[in-house]
Design goal:
The structure is a single chain. By secondary structure, this protein is α+β, with helices and mostly antiparallel strands. It has 2 domains: about 240 residues, no CATH class; about 100 residues, no CATH class. Helices cover about 45% and strands about 10% of the residues. The strands form 2 sheets. The chain has a 5-stranded antiparallel sheet with strand order 1-3-4-5-6, sandwiched between helices. It has a two-stranded antiparallel ribbon with strand order 2-7. β3 and β4 form a beta hairpin. α3 crosses α13 and α5 runs antiparallel to α7. The two termini are about 20 Å apart.
Length: about 375
């Protein structure tokens, strides 16, 4: 299952009414129990990491199919269900203030799953890194405001987090699954869902950005003073890369557009990184204080001075706004939608709930399916 989008996530505020969340918890509890009992915790985490299934589950439980609240409400409902029951998996984090409590809540899982100190630190590191990647390493204008981590008794995990872009009034959701990637900084997502594919996205975790990642580490290891002098000497508007005048280097295009203010770069963080002597980009990104402006600064120096570009490919694959039945600009993967819906229909049919709740859930799923593009 690759990264996919399924719907425009309109940025909605407010709270879900209590009568709705209570209903979602009742039906959700039955569905989660069936999935865990029949397929196991690993499959449950894998399903949560798939944006199509996650969206379909929200719809089946009676929440808006195209709202940014899909993420926050469904994660809140799942957290209530998992943390009050014996499923072998718990949830930490949430929206806003709750997202910042994730590390503290992970620590409390020692008492629940008998985690060692090493287990706790590994999970805390994963929680920090997935947030750092989606806030800093991928820059499409979506700042995270929601982070929920689902943690199993064996230490495996899935993360669902969401950022908002106020300028376009849309949200983007990021899905992660432990064991589904080799590195936090090389194509790590199990899914990304958004409203649109943007033309210029600084994507430093793209597979094709490996040379940039290596150069960024070298730049930091050379020392902060040199990097500061280089950055301060660059004029961005219309400036070309020095690669044009270097031998054995092909012509590079004029830089697309960076907005880097040297005063906003966290030079103290870069100094700490220099002292830590990171061996790879993941270690560099993990340094506290290395944020979006710092990564942009490294990208600017890398491209203008050394002719090494980061990737500008938006990692979101497609949404209703882009996928089309004629395959332009890319085909809609209807098979994935059908698989998610069939899986949920089977779980709902076997769930121990009233006939009316079961019937209404089926109606919502079929209504959701009807909105999908034809194959």
């Amino acid at each position: 299952m690759q990264r996919t989008g399924v719907a425009e996530l309109i940025l909605h505020g407010g709270r879900a009414p209590p009568w709705l969340t209570k209903r979602m918890i009742r039906l959700g509890n039955a569905v989660v129990r069936i999935v865990v009992d029949e397929y196991g915790v690993s499959e449950f985490l894998r399903r949560l990491s798939h944006p199509v299934w996650f969206q379909a589950l929200s719809c089946a439980l009676a929440y808006d199919w195209d709202s940014s609240g899909t993420t926050t409400v469904l994660c809140g409902v799942l957290k209530t269900i998992l943390n009050s029951g014996d499923f072998g998996v718990k949830a930490v984090g949430g929206k806003g203030r709750l997202s910042r409590l994730s590390l503290e809540e992970i620590g409390r899982l020692r008492e629940v799953f008998d985690f060692s100190d090493e287990d706790v630190e590994r999970l805390r590191y994963a929680s920090r890194m997935v947030a750092k990647v989606d806030n800093t390493a991928v820059q499409a204008g979506y700042r995270l405001y929601h982070h929920t981590m689902f943690i199993a008794e064996d230490g495996s995990w899935a993360v669902v987090q969401q950022g908002m872009n106020p300028s376009v009034k849309m949200a983007r959701r990021f899905h992660w699954l432990s064991g589904g990637f080799k590195s936090f900084v090389v194509e790590p997502h199990s899914g990304i869902i958004g409203a649109a594919r943007h033309r210029m996205v600084l994507n430093t975790v793209a597979r094709e950005a490996e040379e940039f990642r290596k150069l960024s580490v070298d730049l930091v290891r050379d020392g902060v003073s040199r990097l500061r002098r280089t950055l301060s000497s660059l004029r961005v508007e219309g400036q070309e890369s020095l690669a044009r005048w270097m031998t054995d280097v092909g012509e590079t295009p004029i830089v697309k557009g960076y907005r880097v203010d040297p005063r906003r770069v966290n030079w103290e963080a870069l100094k700490r990184a220099y002292e830590a002597a990171p061996v790879d980009y993941e270690q560099l990104l993990a340094v506290k204080g290395v944020g979006p402006s710092t990564v942009k600064a490294l990208a600017l120096v890398s491209e203008l001075v050394y002719g090494v570009e980061p990737s500008w490919r938006d990692p979101v694959k497609y949404t209703f706004a882009f996928g089309g039945k004629d395959g332009i600009p890319f085909p809609v993967r209807r098979r994935e939608y059908d698989e998610a819906i069939n899986f949920l229909e089977d779980a709902i049919s076997r769930a121990k709930v009233g006939d009316r709740d079961r019937l209404e859930a089926f109606k919502r799923l079929r209504s959701y399916a009807a909105r999908l593009p034809s194959p």
